[in-house]
Amino acid sequence: FEGRMINIHPSLLPKYKGLNTHQKAIDAGDQEHGASVHFVTPELDGGPVIIQSKVPVFEGDSAADLAQRVQQQERNIYPLVVDWFC
């Protein structure tokens, strides 16, 4: 299935591969965070990025606050990519 599987990841790859991406963005003092849809490869979250969507990181955000904004964008971009490839 190489080159045929896609994944959505809650960060602006290549930043913050793996888990706890929202907290990592907050801890790093990032001004923006977001979501990426990418092709799946053997490397964790390492496949070519198809599309990204950004959201602001506000002072005082919790990881849950940031996750909520990112998830709204995930719901927009994932179906878009599916339409492009299916």
Task: Give the tags.
alpha+beta, 2 helices, 35% helix, 3-stranded antiparallel β-sheet, 23% strand, 3 strands, single chain, 86 residues
Task: Write a concise synopsis of the structure shown.
The protein is built from 2 helices and 3 strands.
Quote the beta fraction: 15-25%
- How much is the radius of gyration in Å? 13 Å
Order of helices and strands: EHEEH
Low-confidence runs of at least 5 consecutive residues: none
Largest sheet: 3 strands, antiparallel
Number of strands: 3
> What helical percentage do the residues reach?
25-40%
Q: Report how far the terminal alpha carbons are from each other.
A: 15 Å
Structural class of the secondary elements? alpha+beta
Choose one word for the global shape.
globular
Identify the strand order in the major beta sheet: 1-2-3
Structure characterization notes:
The chain is an alpha+beta fold and 86 residues long. Helices cover 35% and strands 23% of the residues. The chain has a three-stranded antiparallel β-sheet with strand order 1-2-3, with helices on one face.
